[in-house]
Amino acid sequence: MDKLYRSIWIFCLLFLVTGCWDQNEIEERGFVIGAAIDMVEEEKGDSGGEMSEKELGDKYKLTYQFVVPGNFIGGSSGGGQSGGGASEGKPFLNLTAEGTSIHQITRKMAAETSRKPYLEHINLIVLSEELARKGYLKDVMDFFVRDHEMRRVAKVMVAEGEASKVLEINPQHEKMPVLFIDSLSENMVKHGTSLPPINIGDVHSYLLKGNSFVIPRIVVKNNKGAILGATMFDSQDQKMIGTLNESETLGLNFITEKVESAVLEFLMNGQLVAFEIKDARSKIKADVFDKDQIKFTVKINVDGNVGEVYGDVALKSRSVLSEIEEKTAKEIERIINGVIDKVQKKYKADVFELGAYLKQEHYKTWKQVNKEWEKGENYFSKSVVDVQVRVDVRQIGASIKMVK
Amino acid sequence: MKSFEYGDSEVGRKEVLVGVANMVIGFGVLTLPRTVANATHSIDGWISISLGGLIVIFFAGVLAKLISRFPKKNLHEFTSLIINKPIATILTFLFASYMMLFVCYEMRVVAEISKLYLFDRTPTEVICFVFFLVTIYAVSGPSTVILRLNLLFMPIILFIILLLIVMNIGFFEFKTTKPFFHTGWSEILRGSKETIFSFLGFEILLFYNAFINETKNTVKFTIMGMAIPLLLYLLVFVFVVGVFGVEVAENTLYPTAELAKRVEIPGGFFERFESVFFTIWVVTLFSTASMAFDVTLLAFASIFLKKIKRMTFIFFLSPLIYIIAMSPQNFAETSIFGEWISYLGIGFSMFMPLLLLVIAMMRGVKGNG
Amino acid sequence: MLRHVFNKRLKYQKQNVEDKQNDIPSTIYTDIHANLDNIKRILNAPSDFIQRTFTISDSEKKCAIVCIDGLVDKDMINDQLIKNIQLGMQTAKKEVPASSDEVMEKLKNEVLSTYELKIAHILDDVLLAILSGDTALFINGTDKVLLVGSKGWASRGIDEPQTESLVRGPREGFTENIRTNTMLVRRQVKDPNLRLESSKVGRRSKRDLVVCYVEGIVHPDIVAEVNRRLKTIDIDEVAESGTIEQWIEDSSLSPFPQVLHTERPDKVTSAILQGKVAILLDGTPFALIAPTTFVSLFQSQEDYYERWLIGSLLRILRYVAAFFAVFLPALYIALVSFHQGMIPSKLAFSIAGSREGVPFPAIIEALMMEATLELLREAGIRLPKPIGQTIGIVGGLVIGEAAVQAGLVSPVMIVAVAVTAISSFAIPSYGAGIAFRILRFGTMLAAGIFGLYGIILTYIMINIHIARLKSFGIPYSTPFAPTFYRDWKDVAIRAPITAISKRPQYMQTVDETKIGKGDESS
Q1: Which band of pLDDT confidence, cut at 50, 70 and 90, is reported for residue C213?
Q2: For residues A73 and B359, what is the distance between their CA atoms, to the nearest angstrom?
Q3: Fewer Cβ close by (within 10 Å): the C or N end of chain B?
């Protein structure tokens, strides 16, 4: 017994001697907080053809945003003016490298910077539109999904134009561009005009399910970021096929029941009324009698408040309220029909997840149409989507009328 | 000294219940959603799990019936009564070898998972080795201690799984689970087959029978013990499908781990719940491995009639187990290894007890006269 | 193993001693002077040795008292003994009998007005009595000795227990005087079944030891086992109850105390009423309670005095404290040097920033700070009381602050160490607190090598150890493993008093019911 104890102790001591393989002190990590991936611009030869070793050369341009921890605590928000910092005092550092695969570039970058990129705190992945259009989304995402270090919650976005520009915007209220965009995207959801954040896990499941899907689109304006609309990807080869603007995104969110709140503006009797949506529920029904012309009925119930009223609209009478309700419903129907029209006719991509609905509720029909839902026979485009909106005004606010 | 009855070398039925449950819950929870989803491609996998579970529970009942016929006797002893001594010795030897392989597999799996989720560069050999040292420390004590440890660990294990489920309630979408009932019987049966593998482990009772002091309700408590993993598996499967959809469940290595990755601790006290989950999961794998190791030792000891000391067995078996555990070259080989052990397990835990029970009943053999 | 070696050595010593003692005649002579000379020779006429020879009453019979100065109550000897013998016989108009034996009988039965009187026939008994503070009365012409109880040395008064003070609860603690201590116990349990079995322990120190239990509650096996183990004690000096504890405990390798010690009489009475056995030793205010389980390390007497919600909250807090005390520095190490992904992003960046100048890995940093802390604690105990506190505060604050300033450690580490230090003091049993401190270094090392994996493996090992450990035949991990659901009412939460109507099941008490049905009408 004694001997056993002794040998166990000796083994334990041995471990101390052999060292700690995975020990890596926190200050030695190069925390990557965001990544932007672009295509390398000059691409010789046809990309679709056989890839020789030469062409395998450089394909992606990867930009990592590193945290500079020393400046993170000391630096004031906005960066730039904290004194005494080693590298200009900015709490972040963008590094760019080119290569054939994300993995390889990451390794390459380790040689460039003194610290090895550490991806466990990555918060944002931005892809360039070019990359998305060429259908490299799935290749790029593979690295991020496969790497178990990656957190599922990292958000994915598609940038208009160059992705690395997104990481260079001037953050407001936050210390780093990535954190700024992160909180921005959380906030934008409340306006209803942008998609709720999509993370790596979601993209993974989109790719696996093989439906068309949407990813938030970020547009940089005057070095100040704003997330606008959505980017659509088709189901066949996961290429980006088009974009949706703000109001189209709102329409999409209505159907997929993702509107938390939104503000609608419309004219009533020549006066502007702002209607604040508090809650929107949608219910889809399908009539699958004829598979060549499946009829979807989307019923949307909206609750909301009257937010702003200009002019002399008196909110006292029931008739005025019901007029507001009717107008709002009309407005919402217009928005939704607009997006349905665009998606169904122009892009033929079922981003409304109507196919998924069929699978869940009308499995037999789905089996028949599944193969040619968005291609060939294109049952999706042939289907009819009828939108019915019902609006209820819950609160009119404290005042009935502002002016006499 | 004369010590208290409960403090002695006996265990009650609670230990049986929890021991069985803890032995069965192990690596299975992590992979089961994937294997079942692969077979059934839909939420209907729950039928597979229930079906497989019920089949196994039936056989567990058979085994419990067999051992309650022979109170305080282990496999070697009652097989000698039922058939004869040479056959009993051969059977016990095979059983011991199977259990030993089981230990090897379990240890390897611990190392693989820890390597995947907790380590990066630490060699698998080392991860496995320290785990093995702890297991040896456990089995160097009496068997009752190992059974009792389950009582200490079970609440933690149930807690972490339920926490995992509760934290995911917000992400659970009922519509993702639809449509129901459209999977063919052949697929469901195929799913059940996969499920059965995850329910093995209750055969430890063949030896722990010698320590059970209340023989009356062994059958009932064994079945209750088996019901715990069944419920857990159902819960985890439904949640994996409800949160991610079948497609993701089919295509991730450990779907349950994905569930853990999804969790966000309120208040952001710490992140990456999956690391915590896996850390705690080591505890379950430890209980399984240590019980299997303990049963191996008991089985070998029963053949040699306690002539050889327990520590001697440990001393000679440990290097062997370690070498076998380290022999699969990669994860795929480990999986195949595991599959073979599972087939062996079906033989030893389901058919052998059934056969023994039938013979015992025909011959009218009973323990204690 | 260790004990075996001890035993061997002890046997050897014993023989030596016996050889020496053989020179001295241990019989009592009839001649008083021979006796006095003999005793003087044995004790080597120490300076505190008192002998006084005088005649009984008006007769010619010589007698002598022998005692040790300082141990005896002088007034009592003067007033009750000498006065009564010299004058008492006369005033009572009693004849002094001719036979010395009769004189002694008469003195014992009629003259001496003290309650503790005993006749001894063996010199060893006489010597022991003298050395324990009694007075021996020799009468010329008889080989019997009258022993008069006259213990009366200076002792500390009943004081508030120093190591276990409570906000609510009795303020009196045990003292060094065993009579006071038994008094304190008896006063709280006026049950005729309260047993106080005395014996002497230590071959040379010959301390009084009292095994205390309530017959009819305690399981007889436990008393038998405690007595059996106490009988094995064969050591010349029992300095403190710690000596006994170490002798009778089950595993000397375990960091956990298997016998609880306390200064509080109320804790002892509550324990014996739960079916446990208490051991009191003369000369120390610390009583021992056996058997002990892991959960009882977390039970403070105050839990029962406060209302149950408060008691339960405090209990849970203590479990959390124990967890912190053992695992917090280890978790810090694991997170900072292995699993940085688990720290919330912003916190991770600030820790990284604050550690930028720290030249050591987290494990060294943590070990350094923990060592400093232990030093401070140790120094604080040694230093005179008023300075001790100052050093504690100054040392803690100044060293901590300076270490951060000097870039030796990171501020987060200081927070972790401070929380750990406070936590380890929240555990009511001092011995358990030390155990957790020891374990802490183990977990820190494991975390430094394997991160979280190391921590969980240490956790498993601690569990194995606890499950294996027994205290007087009772598994240390009761009531969890083996499970006694009934006893869970008094583990993490302390159920309302009325809900705990039975004594702990794991103690297998003879009389289980604690609370009667009470007034049926209410």
Answers
A1: very high
A2: 76
A3: C
